[in-house]
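FORM 12-B: Structure-to-Sequence Request
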């Protein structure tokens, strides 16, 4: 196995789900974020279908527990229905609690405890869609919103601080323009959601001071607008150790701030922001919300309801086949729905679903061959235990180090090979063909480890 090639898999994110990217008509990020340029309504090739499949989570605030080493709120993904592209969904499919919970993030304010909500789950469970919904709802309610996707330079504390500061400056500029045009000075609804990618680290500034200064700027703007600000952070598992610690310390330093935080990331995000910072206040600051795969009946209901919005009716056999092929992933349910769009007849639909599943497994087999050896070892240990998987702590203890374990787990979650459920069990989500291929790699892996050059490769 070529480990140098295997390391490149960390940048992949389910390539088979890119088939319909053009059909979904993703808007230009710069076009969405510019506060001065008028918004241009994008034209969806399939507006009804694309509009209906916006996913979030259903949260039960009373189900807070402390399983293993993590307190969390159990949740399952669901589908809020909206009538047209760009509209904020107001009608949810049996998920009233999630709407109440999300609205409390920007309508209420607790000075410190419960100030940060952390969404945790594997790829495709709807974390980013949930953050988008919160951003839009809070902005329309008059709250200043800053959304940052952590990647590249923003993974460092100085880059993250620079991104937040730049967003605050954009908000101030937009507020000034709106105020001059409408004579409105307070509670101006502004929306800024920018994926920052190019920022130079300010090495001369200590990490915590740079972030604290940026958060203070956002807090000052929020007080000027007389509305709590919302800081939305996506992909927080990509933060480096120093940045994660700086973020927690910055939030603790100013317990009178009116900046609310909602973040999302893979399983390792909780360890980076809570356990590894070694702060007793951290578990009370971050309310961890676990996202899980949809149950089969919820997947079927989502497909039926959303197809009905688009004026399409599918038979029970087609719906059940599509739900089974998606494996409970909201993102794959959306992809399958778009893949089936325009097809007619039960036989043609079932054939397309089978073709989709075969192509997906073929791509996953290629991914398995490119995984770094530590990730293959983790996948082997999980797949050997069958469909029930293994406890997270057990899988973590079998790795050579925590860094190696979370690097491998991030890779497997990112490409959709495993899922960590709210019971804190790691399960293989791939089909039997992929699992069989993984088991075949055992021979190659054992041969490599028993050879003369059996040093464990780096997982970087």
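FORM 12-B RESPONSE
SEQUENCE OUT:
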């Amino acid at each position: 196995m070529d480990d140098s090639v295997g390391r490149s898999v960390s940048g992949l994110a389910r390539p088979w789900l890119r088939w319909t990217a053009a059909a979904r008509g993703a808007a230009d990020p710069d076009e969405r974020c510019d506060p001065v340029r008028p918004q241009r309504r994008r034209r969806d090739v399939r507006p009804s279908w694309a509009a209906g499949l916006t996913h979030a989570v259903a949260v039960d605030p009373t189900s807070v527990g402390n399983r293993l080493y993590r307190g969390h709120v159990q949740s399952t993904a669901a589908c809020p229905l909206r009538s047209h592209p760009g509209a904020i969904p107001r009608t949810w499919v049996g998920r009233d609690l999630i709407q109440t919970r999300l609205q409390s993030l920007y309508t209420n304010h607790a000075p410190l405890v419960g100030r940060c909500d952390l969404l945790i789950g594997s790829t495709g469970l709807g974390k980013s869609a949930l953050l988008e919904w919160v951003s839009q709802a809070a902005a329309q309610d008059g709250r200043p919103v800053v959304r940052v996707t952590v990647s590249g330079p923003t993974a460092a504390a100085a880059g993250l601080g620079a991104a937040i500061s730049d967003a605050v400056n954009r908000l101030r500029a937009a507020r000034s323009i709106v105020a001059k045009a409408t004579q409105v000075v307070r509670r101006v609804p502004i929306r800024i959601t920018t994926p920052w990618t190019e920022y130079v680290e300010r090495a001369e500034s200590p990490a915590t001071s740079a972030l604290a200064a940026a958060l203070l700027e956002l807090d000052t703007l929020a007080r000027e607008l007389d509305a709590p600000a919302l800081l939305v952070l996506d992909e927080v598992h990509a933060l480096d150790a120093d940045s994660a610690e700086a973020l927690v310390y910055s939030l603790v330093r100013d317990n009178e701030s009116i900046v609310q935080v909602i973040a999302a990331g893979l399983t390792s995000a909780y360890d980076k922001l809570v356990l590894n910072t070694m702060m007793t206040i951290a578990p009370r600051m971050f309310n961890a919300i676990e996202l899980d795969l949809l149950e089969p009946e919820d997947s079927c209901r989502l497909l039926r309801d959303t197809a009905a919005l688009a004026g399409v009716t599918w038979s029970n056999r087609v719906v059940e086949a599509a739900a089974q092929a998606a494996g409970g992933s909201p993102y794959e349910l959306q992809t399958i729905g778009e893949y089936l769009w325009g097809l007619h007849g039960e036989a043609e639909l079932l054939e397309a679903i089978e073709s989709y599943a075969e192509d997906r497994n073929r791509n996953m087999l290629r991914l398995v061959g490119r995984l770094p050896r530590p990730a293959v070892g983790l996948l082997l240990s999980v797949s050997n235990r069958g469909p029930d998987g293994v406890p997270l702590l057990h899988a973590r203890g079998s790795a050579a180090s925590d860094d190696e374990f979370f690097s491998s787990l991030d890779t497997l979650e990112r490409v959709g090979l495993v899922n960590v459920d709210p019971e804190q069990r790691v399960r293989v989500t791939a089909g039997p063909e992929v699992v069989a291929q993984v088991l075949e790699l055992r021979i190659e892996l054992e041969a490599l480890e028993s050879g003369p050059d059996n040093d464990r490769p780096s997982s970087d």
